[in-house]
Amino acid sequence: MEKLLENQVALVTGASSGIGYGVAQALANAGAAVVLNYHTHAESAKKLADEIEKAGGAALAVGADVTDRDQVESMFDACRARFGTVDIVVANSGLQRDSAFAEMTLEDWQTVLATNLTGQFLTAQSAVKEFRRRGPRPVSKALGKLICMSSVHEVIPWARRVNYAASKGGVLMFMKSLAQEVAPERIRVNSIAPGAIRTRINKDAWESKPEQDRLLQLIPYGRVGNPDDIGKAAVWLASDESDYVVGTTLFVDGGMTLYPEFADNG
Ligand code: NAD
């Protein structure tokens, strides 16, 4: 059976854990050769690359800090050296540095903005340049596909995380403005906005039963998400099945953005 992403090359940043790991697995299962970027936990990215290759796929683990332009460019060089080009880029790297607003340090603010927003800028810029350099390929209707990993917090305000919410609000207009600019070249730029997905970034919210029960009150669909839920969405958004989807955010959140507190109130 033909796979949706056969003969395409995908790059996923922050692929050594959580959502990035799940997205890389899903893209590989859909037939793409995958470049797994890691910043920390190199061993985990390398292990996944080995597993993909043993299963008959193609994968390469590449270390890079997405806040550093030279390292991002070297990551794309490594991608070109091994696979010739890249067709799909998932700008997934992100982190949180939570604190009450008055206590938030400038470093906490800058680290989150640098990783979650500037990291997307640098990754997307290298991606657009590579799509243009390489030109059209018969493997996809689009010249290239860029997926920004956003969050429900691109629209839901989040007290004690103003840095994180500001970064994801920034991703929203970054994605839309870039999509508007490059769509005429048939480059498709979209975002995925996950709700609560079980990864280390939010383990405090699901590790204990009382915390998980509190979290579930925010999720009408009644379960916490898994990286694979995001992986499946990424495969669709990267494939020609979504060829007319341009400049939009796909919320994969079990209904979190339906504001369930209003179901029997307000
Ligand atoms: P995670 O901590 O497992 O993954 C984040 C990844 O980003 C890690 O692999 C980390 O090494 C990488 N990273 C951090 N700084 C980096 C840098 N400077 N350069 C390169 N990589 C860097 O957490 P996750 O939940 O998998 O988060 C992935 C993305 O999903 C993030 O953008 C996050 O904001 C977003 N997200 C997560 C959730 C959730 O519920 N887990 C919800 C909404 C959005």
Automatic annotation (TrEMBL):
<dbReference type="InterPro" id="IPR020904">
    <property type="entry name" value="Sc_DH/Rdtase_CS"/>
</dbReference>
<protein>
    <submittedName>
        <fullName>Glucose 1-dehydrogenase</fullName>
        <ecNumber>1.1.1.47</ecNumber>
    </submittedName>
</protein>
<dbReference type="InterPro" id="IPR057326">
    <property type="entry name" value="KR_dom"/>
</dbReference>
<feature type="domain" description="Ketoreductase">
    <location>
        <begin position="8"/>
        <end position="200"/>
    </location>
</feature>
<comment type="similarity">
    <text>Belongs to the short-chain dehydrogenases/reductases (SDR) family.</text>
</comment>
<dbReference type="GO" id="GO:0047936">
    <property type="term" value="F:glucose 1-dehydrogenase [NAD(P)+] activity"/>
</dbReference>
<dbReference type="InterPro" id="IPR002347">
    <property type="entry name" value="SDR_fam"/>
</dbReference>
<dbReference type="InterPro" id="IPR036291">
    <property type="entry name" value="NAD(P)-bd_dom_sf"/>
</dbReference>
<keyword id="KW-0560">Oxidoreductase</keyword>
<dbReference type="Pfam" id="PF13561">
    <property type="entry name" value="adh_short_C2"/>
</dbReference>
